[in-house]
Specification:
Layout (H helix, E strand, L loop, with lengths): L11 H6 L6 H9 L4 E3 L14 H9 L2 E3 L13 E7 L10 E7 L2
Parallel strand pairs: 1-2
Antiparallel strand pairs: 3-4
Length: 106
């Protein structure tokens, strides 16, 4: 059984405000390359200082799913995998918590 370990010195403000993110042009470049889902291990796909939510805007324009707060992405770097994002059925919702699953090719 896995037990979460929380660091009492962990700065939650930093976690929520200091991470990289996509600019409008970067998100549009991904969209034009045919990306159907942008997944990140951060609170949002947008840069924290981007008050226009540019990454989200591009996702809306191109009907791209964005998946935030993923973990263990280091396990799939440079590997082929099939991704499943299993959402909750939320009536009239625009987002949902998901169970993220990656089936990694051997």
């Amino acid at each position: 059984m896995y037990t979460a370990h929380f660091d009492k010195n962990f700065d939650t403000d930093k976690w929520q405000t200091e991470y990289s993110g996509l600019s409008y042009s970067a998100a549009k470049w991904l969209a034009e390359k045919g990306v159907v889902n942008i997944g990140v291990d951060a609170p949002a796909i947008d840069h924290p200082s981007d008050i226009d939510f540019s990454g989200h805007l591009v996702c809306g324009e191109y009907h791209i799913t964005n998946t935030e707060n993923l973990c263990n992405l280091d396990k799939v770097v440079n590997k082929r995998f099939l991704y499943f994002g299993l959402p909750l059925k939320i009536r009239d919702g625009s987002g949902s918590p998901i169970r993220a699953v990656a089936l990694v090719e051997d």
